[in-house]
Amino acid sequence: MKQETGRIDRFFQVSQNHSSVRTEVLAGITTFITIAYILILNPQILADPYVIMGDAAMAGKIANGVFIGTCIGAFIGTILCALYARVPFAQAPGMGLNAFFAYTVVLGMGYTYGQALVVVFISGVFFIVITAIGLREAIIRSIPDAVKTAITPGIGLFITIIGLKNAGIVISNPATLVSLVDFSQWKIEGADLALMSSALVALAGLVIMGTLHARKIKGSILLGIVAATLIGIPLGVTHISNLDMNIGMKFRDFAEVSFVKMDFAGLFSGANMVETIFTVTMLVISFSLVNMFDSIGTLLGAAKQSGMIDENGEVIRMKQALMSDAISTAAGAMVGTSTVTTVVESSAGIAAGGRTGLTSLVTALLFLGAILFAPIVSIVPAAATAPALIFVGILMLGNIRDVDFSDMSNALPAFCTIVFMPFTYSIANGVAFGLITYCLMKLTTGRRQDVKVLTLAISVVFVVRYAFMTLG
């Protein structure tokens, strides 16, 4: 056993990264549990257009098939991060990108599920090409320090608002946009009581995580998730009845959404071929821009948090991490799911001590095992994983001390990067508006020499995208 552990240590350079096998395993489990909600939400979102259209049979098949596709797609992407890139990042279908796939491409534009998968596949192939020639690395290097330093705290606020929303602590309000859940609803029954109970479970989990972390107890995030899940049982938040043992049907329906159903001919069968090609190209660019800057933002933010920045300020093993991300996008489409990308929830495992690809290996194996152990995954409620996101947000926000607020030409772009992420619910929007305002501030203050040509070109592309392309 010690010999096997030694081999693992050497392959992943665990000791060299001041970690341990135990810490890496706990971090991998933490990442998986934090992102496990995607195994439930992604099938629901991608099947929803057919629910809205009244095709319940097709919706059921897609939901079942996409569950398997989500597990396999996440496994492929994350195992690449583990064995090829050897970085502690996880990959899974991206939230927001799946909504764009479902509600804009399928429901809004009328494409079939198989045709929409082709668009995702093409964007994945495009990513593989530009990563192979080094263009994505060049794009990362073109991001100015004013924006780079703001990405980590921006992501911290972004995942915090995701956690607050998933917990039911922050709710929508037509007058003020958002507001606090009404904790006085414990006196009544129904949906309001359920929402209040969810919020209480999440707050309890958050306090437990904070207490354990303050006492320097290893696995504080994972232990907090488990504790919140148990607390949720008597409060009616954790539902043991969510057990779903019918795995066989999910495998049968997997054929309905896998690569054999990708409809290349149908996608390009329009009467006006020029218009069809233009529309498909715009969709591919739209998917690619959001995916690229979501993954770049997550990569930079998580790398800084984990200490994976070299003396030149660049992400260690960046090209391998980017290629893993590119391959998983194409592979995800082939197994029937929307864009697979590096997920921000990787930060939970990093916060738990993950520093090497061993963290990703554990997460990848759990994604694969989730196919058989879906009943256990489905029991953990959003209220139990939400405090993990909020807690990691606390840790990431601490990096705001690195932001230069003394120079307004840097402060404004940094501020836009930070606030646009949570308030537009998109990492890509934060990076985009950070770059756009950076170029404008430098050009209008007579410091155009600070603006790289590629930085300006990317900013122009984003301006064109916002002006002429449908937002997801």
From TrEMBL:
InterPro entries assigned to the protein according to its UniProt record, in alphabetical order: Azg-like (IPR045018), Azg-like_bact_archaea (IPR026033), NCS2 (IPR006043)
Domain of life: Bacteria
Alphabetical list of Pfam families matching this protein: Xan_ur_permease
Keywords, alphabetical: Cell membrane, Membrane, Transmembrane, Transmembrane helix, Transport
Membrane topology listed for this record: Multi-pass membrane protein
Transmembrane segments: 21-42, 62-85, 92-111, 117-135, 155-173, 193-214, 221-241, 277-300, 365-398, 418-441, 453-471
Localisation: Cell membrane
Annotated GO CC locations: plasma membrane
Keyword Transmembrane recorded: yes
Main location: membrane
One MF term in the entry's GO annotations: purine nucleobase transmembrane transporter activity
Entry keyword annotation includes Transmembrane: yes
Similarity-based family: Belongs to the nucleobase:cation symporter-2 (NCS2) (TC 2.A.40) family. Azg-like subfamily.
Protein name per the record: Permease
Species assigned in the record: [Clostridium] clostridioforme CAG:132
